[in-house]
Amino acid sequence: MQTCRRRHDRCAHDQQGQGSTENVAANPDFAVLPAEQFDGTGSGSAPSAETSLLLIRAMIAAAMADGHLDPGEQARIFGQAGELGLSDSDKVVLFDELRHPRSVEAIAADARDPVIAVEVYAASLLAVDETTAAAKTYLNELALRLNLPSQLVEAVHQQASDNTAARSAA
To answer: What is the pLDDT of residue 46?
Structure first.
């Protein structure tokens, strides 16, 4: 089994929203995470209803970071919500979220497990156009609040880029 190993780095953010690396104490939660969890070949088990709802909430919060939801963001969120098989009551909750998205602090606080934290970050990344200033700022803040190591964040971005390229080629 391949693993993503954490080095003793984490993303620290300067005033321009650019990440820099600073040495910090090791976070054992990220010492070894299974690569299969992030490459689309995972165990095949579906996320719990609570986790599914959190991932969609994270997507909504990220998409709304710039104050509005564009058609592409909306399509990605609704597409993911459809794939997760949310209940009707969960879908109602999500429509409320669109009107009142959660803060980055609340999203990060709900990600109580390191694997869920990475999934929350990945879902947020997939919801937005990461080239915009608002998305970059939001993603930097989310990574910081989730205590994600910079190398793990970079790996998530690379995997998202690879998946996008593969879908475009298909």
So the answer is: 65
